[in-house]
Design goal:
With 185 residues, the chain is of the alpha/beta class. Strands 1, 2, 3, 4, 5 and 6 form a six-stranded parallel beta sheet that branches. Helix 2 links the parallel strand 1 and strand 2. The longest helix is centred in the N-terminal third of the chain and has 29 residues. The protein is globular and about 40 Å long. The termini are far apart.
Length: 185
């Protein structure tokens, strides 16, 4: 009986040691990732979906209550007016189980040299304390860095990892970026 108890105790200690060694790996895999994005023309959505496919994260589309015009020029006029008036366009949906997410990607197109005003609405709607925020954006030619910096500014209570800017819907470099910031292996 004593020998069986000693063997059982040894097996238990061995299992505890293996569990302790794998704790950081298990802890990383248990972290929940949210990919929140606003997309008007589909480019940011395409990039967000690619990030989700690589990370296993949950997609959340930030949708305005009042849709933006579908034609480019009228949409830019609305976006410019929102920026100039420091507007907060209403969002028609909410993130369920916000508290369960540890890592939040926030993505958007570059509008008028920065993030669209609906991103302000989104970031002001949630508590980012204790979260890790990773910004990403899509752009045609410039203002990538300013847009990524704006998302960081909007989430001062969060920790931040380096962001990524994709030209249009090009996903080249995203997998390498996610490895560099240690979101995937």
């Amino acid at each position: 009986m004593k020998a069986k108890l000693m063997t059982l105790f040894a097996v238990l200690l061995c299992c505890m040691a293996v569990t302790a060694q794998n704790a950081p790996e298990r802890e990383q895999s248990e972290k929940k990732i949210l990919i929140a994005y606003f997309s008007w023309g589909g480019n940011t959505q395409h990039v967000a979906e690619y990030i989700a496919s690589l990370t296993g994260g949950t997609l959340f589309r930030i949708e305005p209550e009042k849709p933006y015009p579908v034609e480019y020029k009228p949409c830019t006029e609305v976006a410019k007016t929102e920026k100039e008036s420091n507007a907060r366009p209403a969002i028609k949906n909410k993130v369920e189980n916000w508290g369960e997410y540890d890592t939040i990607f926030i993505g958007c197109p570059v509008w008028w040299w920065t993030a669209p005003m609906i991103i302000n609405t989104f970031t002001e709607s949630y508590d980012f304390k204790g979260k890790t925020v990773i910004p990403f954006c899509t752009y045609a030619s410039t203002y990538r860095d300013e847009t990524l910096a704006r998302i960081v500014e909007l989430t001062p209570e969060a920790g931040h990892l380096n962001g990524f800017g994709a030209v249009d819907r090009n996903t080249k470099g995203i997998e390498e970026w996610l490895r560099t910031i240690q979101i995937i292996r």
